Amino acid sequence: xTSLPGLIMRIQIKPTAAPRMSRRDxxxxxxxxxxxxxxxxxxxxxxxxxxxxxxxxxxxxIVFHLPMPEGWSAHKRRELIGTPHLSxxxxxxxxxxxxxxxxxxxxxxxxxxxxxxxxxAWAASGAIDFVAPATFACLWVxxxxxxxxxxxxxx
Length: 155
Description:
- The protein is of the alpha+beta class and 155 residues long.
- It has a single domain (7-153), classed as CATH 3.30.1330.
- 35% of the residues lie in helices and 15% in strands.
- It is built from 5 helices and 4 strands; from the N terminus they run βααβααββα.
- The chain has helices spanning 23-27, 35-50, 74-80, 93-104, 133-146, and strands spanning 7-11, 61-67, 117-123, 127-131.
- α2 (35-50) packs across α4.
- It is globular and about 45 Å long.
């Protein structure tokens, strides 16, 4: 990967949205939770470990690179790589962001977060980019103008 201006950190991980949890899900011991909650907690722990050097107090935008289904044809993959993830079946950007904040602020309140911006795009592999605000704004505008991320930003 080349050094991208404004990129604070890229983490190679499949982004996972925070699921709706019942009190039982949140308080149960591992192995007694629903599989979707077990998977989310594993993701949250892995992301927290990989992002430990990230200063979570820094204002930043988040770009979620969502991997394309393996069953898609090569033609469809080429057509959609880097385009906005608009499947209509989720995950929602706000739930992806909630998963990031849950990872970064495990035992703390995240009420101090006053700006929460993110976008999601189709990618060959999963990743999360933490991006400086000015760079994020440029990425967002370019995505609106061209309909996809610049090739340097595609994972």
